[in-house]
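Hi R.,

Here's the chain you asked about this morning:
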Amino acid sequence: MNPKVKGFTMGSIAAASYGLNPLFALPLYAAGYSVDNVLFYRYAFAIVMLGVMMKVRGLTMKVNPRDLPLLALFGLLFSASSLFLFLSYQYMDAGIASTILFLYPVMVAVIMMLFYHEKPSLITWITLAMTFVGVTLLGKQSDGSNISLMGVTLVMLSSLSYAIYIVGVNHTRLKNLDTARMTFYALFFGILIYVVRLHFCADVVMPQEPLHWLCAICLALFPTIISLVTMTISIHHIGSTYAAILGALEPITAVVVGVFVFHERLTSRISLGIVTILVAVTLLIAGKKIFYTLKNTICQKRN
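And the predicted structure, written out as tokens:
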């Protein structure tokens, strides 16, 4: 397979896989499982799967002991992002929640502006304005009711936690740690949140039906392991910019699942809001590259 085709294919699979979170989480909610139980099983199965995968590939799990405090901190941030997102599903349509979550690249840009004195470009300001408009358009649920303030707050906290995680990892010595080990320890320390919230596993509820086991395993397999592996392959073949743009398939997948599986209504207002946010984030990620490409093309034509 052509490397670029492979990269775009893997990136699409990675994004679509992550967008399947609602498909496997919502049936468990409907069956009475708490958010903490759902995420406990997701993280537990993912740790086992990733550990086996690393063992098969001959990858070591050893890290510098000095890195453990940072790994614990970022693992808790990683886990907090999952917790806030899954809690938001209880207050709003999964498709809308997943779209708002996709604002994390914008939050990364804002963090870089505020704390690392990165000079904002015109594209950054345009993106911020577009995302504000997009979120405003998402102000009503598919049933016409006002969107839950609690739901928006939770998913924004999820997006912010993930943005801090990304910035932190890339601006500490952990940036030299390979993706597999970084994710393994993020999951390992992240599961501690649910161990504590479940009173040190005293409140863990065992899945009662084969479907429940399947949903829990699929949560670990598709949005976590498959998404991680395919995204890594995608970045290797086409670079982080294009791989990030393909991340737009995450909320699109969640919207499709919400509409066709959970019968969420897709109104024109919600559709416009989703498109506005997707365009804004894509512009933020690839805007400079597009601008310079157009500029070079115009200059070549003039010459």
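The two ends are 37 Å apart (CA to CA).

Let me know if you need anything else.
M.
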